């Protein structure tokens, strides 16, 4: 993998040598930039969801019925899909957060930042496939399989 | 920013007119806090999502009785309380950074942060009260 090297010194040198954006000398447009953009978006989304989620849970102090009614809407097909999106967003943020921590504190972190990005993408896919299956299993079987 | 003439005038980095750095290490501590809380949240949040959304029927089995069962244990009360505080402070601190990044006017930045801090305080107080005062025998409706 020759594209992983992008230290400041090299970037400066190859800048002058006229290297193109694709050779990995620029941060802008690099997968590293997109990993940060996604980290930011998923963090904000999670924060907003947390706001709503504490409010809905607070209904347990109103009455069991009030709580159960609102939780019932979380079991509808559309919200079930949003649930998969939320879990996917949080999982990405957590994995990428660990990657950021390794880049900051592990001596070889900066060198392996890109392989680590593909690594967390791989882990994300491997976790989300069974995860999505278990989250949607019930909804799908009720919608298409006549329920049980 | 005292004598800026147009709305988009930005000082160059390290220009002498920039206000001197604050004489404390708040931003350093906040940077460290993001990383330490992040590590704890991996266990707390991913564990929470796994138990609540994936295991054993996920959200379909959640109702008042389920919550009552979990909060009868001090372990899960402590788990949820730590998760509430860490996630709120971590996410709130992250949002503070984002406001600093994108708000262009001092005024906008100030009010966005006030909104953020009020929202954080409301959620922290409400969430903490709910965990501590939960009553499994509350009337059904
Ligand atoms: C699950 C484990 C989590 C880990 C490992 C984690 C890790 C991190 C790290 C290391 C940062 C700092 C990034 C930087 O300085 O460049 C960060 C930023 C952030 N996190 Fe988390 N986080 C987690 C959970 C959460 C949760 C639950 C929320 C929402 C309540 C959240 C919201 C944010 C926000 C809004 C930022 C700021 C993003 C930015 O400045 O671009 N995170 N996270």
From TrEMBL, chain A:
Recorded superkingdom: Bacteria
One GO cellular component term noted in the UniProt record for this chain: membrane
Keyword Transmembrane: yes
Subcellular location: Membrane
tRNA processing recorded as keyword: no
Keywords from the named record: Heme, Iron, Membrane, Metal-binding, Transmembrane, Transmembrane helix
Cofactor(s) this protein requires: heme
Region of interest (Disordered), residue spans: 1-21
One GO term of the biological process aspect: tricarboxylic acid cycle
GO function terms (MF aspect): electron transfer activity; metal ion binding
TM spans (from-to): 33-55, 76-95, 115-136
UniProt similarity note: Belongs to the cytochrome b560 family.
Alphabetized PANTHER family for the sequence: SUCCINATE DEHYDROGENASE 2 MEMBRANE SUBUNIT SDHC (PTHR41910), SUCCINATE DEHYDROGENASE HYDROPHOBIC MEMBRANE ANCHOR SUBUNIT (PTHR41910:SF1)
Name of this protein: Succinate dehydrogenase, cytochrome b556 subunit
Organism (species): Prauserella flavalba
Lineage summary: Bacteria, Bacillati, Actinomycetota, Actinomycetes, Pseudonocardiales
TrEMBL record, chain B:
InterPro entries: SQR/QFR_C/D, SuccDH_FuR_B_TM-su
Lineage top rank: taxon: Bacteria
Cross-referenced SUPFAM superfamilies: Fumarate reductase respiratory complex transmembrane subunits (SSF81343)
Entry keywords, A to Z: Heme, Iron, Membrane, Metal-binding, Transmembrane, Transmembrane helix
Listed transmembrane segments: 28-51, 114-134
Compartment annotation: Membrane
Gene Ontology CC entries for this record: membrane
Name of this protein: Succinate dehydrogenase
Source organism per UniProt: Prauserella flavalba
Record lineage: Bacteria, Bacillati, Actinomycetota, Actinomycetes, Pseudonocardiales
